[in-house]
Amino acid sequence: MSTTVLALLFLVGLVAAQPGRRPKGPIPGGLTPADDVNDATIQSMSRTAVQKLGSAYSLTRVISASTQVVAGTLYHLELAVSKTTSSTPPTVNNYTCKVKVHEQPWMSYLEMTEFCCKLSN
């Protein structure tokens, strides 16, 4: 009897001591880093976001990108952006922008939900 109890306690201890196993692949609702910032979809979302900032802005490059599945796809983008002023002579200011773009393709919905740009000259 006591041998059975000891064996059972030993097995329970082994199971409890196992490190937590993390499922492979993205966590539902979690952020998934983009494998390639030059991916056509990431580039398209980045260009769309910069267009929404205004015609004076242009995309220099995508610094980083990740996606999140939330009733569609939420793109978290960090972009290098330049802005040309209308002064004479025109000047170019460089910014680093953090942008979120929410897409629901089945509803033809695309909206920039957040943006924050900081001067990086």
Automatic annotation (TrEMBL):
Give the record's keywords alphabetically.
Answer: Protease inhibitor, Signal, Thiol protease inhibitor
What Gene Ontology cellular-component terms does the record carry? cytoplasm; extracellular space; vesicle
Q: Where is the Cystatin domain?
A: 26-118
Which PANTHER family does this UniProt record tie to the protein? Answer: CYSTATIN
Say if the entry is tagged with keyword Hydrolase.
Answer: no
Record's signal peptide: 1-17
The family database entries (CDD domains) matched by this protein are listed as:
CY (cd00042)
Statement: the UniProt record of this protein carries the keyword Signal: yes
Show the Pfam families listed in the entry.
Cystatin
Its name, as the record gives it, is: Cystatin domain-containing protein
- Family per record: Belongs to the cystatin family.
Q: What InterPro entries does the entry give?
A: Cystatin_dom, Cystatin_sf
Q: Which GO terms describe its molecular function?
A: cysteine-type endopeptidase inhibitor activity
